[in-house]
Amino acid sequence: MRRHGISLAGLVVVSVVLAVVIRFGPALSFSLALASPSTETWLASFQEQARREDIVLPAAFGGLRTDLYRPARSRGVLLLVHGLSRAGRRQPDLVRLARLLGAHGLIVVVPQFEGLTAFRLSGREVDDVRAALAYTTTLGKPPAIAGFSFGAGPALLAAASFPDLRVAASFGGYADLTHVIAYVTTGAHSFAEHRYVRKQEEYNRWKLLALLVAFVQQEPDRQRLDEIARRKLANPGDDTRQTEATLGAEGQAVLALALNRREDAVPRLLAGLPTGAREALGRLSPLRAVSRIHARLLIAHGTDDDSIPFTESLRLAAAAGPRVHLALFRTFHHTGPEARSTLLVERARDGWTLVQLVDALLPR
Q1: Residue 25: exposed, middle, or buried by beta-carbon count in 10 A (0-12, 13-18, 19+)?
Q2: Is there a contact between 143 and 166 (Cβ–Cβ < 8 Å)?
Q3: Among 18, 86, 256, 352, which residue's CB has the most CB atoms within a 10 Å radius?
Q4: CATH class of the domain at 52-176+287-361
């Protein structure tokens, strides 16, 4: 009887494992390759690889330089929106992601958004993403869109204009740019009744300054702030005080915000920005737009993100309502898994969270 019970228990375990593999097979293989690049070559032998085409979108769709990953057999189409990155569409992790998605049957559209490659958010990015999404709809329906980091905001804002999307996803994105500014400059972030503070990377200040340059109306100040940001991004120790001294009132207000370290000073410094800058921050914040998105929303964030706080994804999820799939990763920073040692149980929990997220992203 005991032997029979053990055999029956073993059969149940095998049955459960087989059921999980059958149900989540594509998501499991995708997640394994994504989390462990060493397995990618082995898995590739069982998959048809997508062909990458370097194209320029027709003028009606913005004329954007684009990488198009085309699988042998298409199961769907997905637009990827990169974040603030000099490499843009050719950022290595994004290229690997696009290839993996292509190997799983998705036509993947990856345009180059020049504002984001220059560390800018001016509002034109939203128009460019809309144009790219309109092109994506010509390749297959229903399309999906996924934005990363500071590219997730324009992606969500653009998605609100397309009622027939299958999925709209934000990975490490933001809800309100003023909250991101407070986080980058002071480390403070909160949601509901919970408040957090973490030590910030000084380098992020110069990324923030570069992002704010586009909101400056006065041309001389815009050029000088751009110079300061470029020099500090290249060498944070560079002495830019001489250029800073030549800034006018508008430039000084923007620089003071980027250099601030006091949480209680943030509202006053934001109020001191030019009216156009404050309005632009509002227009580029997708918090109010997510309720207008008809697609299923995938919101993912690493809780150890030092560029955009995970509380921003909590805000997006709360505003989206029941259509949202929220995934928080305890062992991830802004761009991927933490290198530091973490508990195996945390890794396992994040692994299952990743499988579920990928399952929601891939078409069935």
Answers
A1: exposed
A2: yes
A3: 256
A4: alpha beta
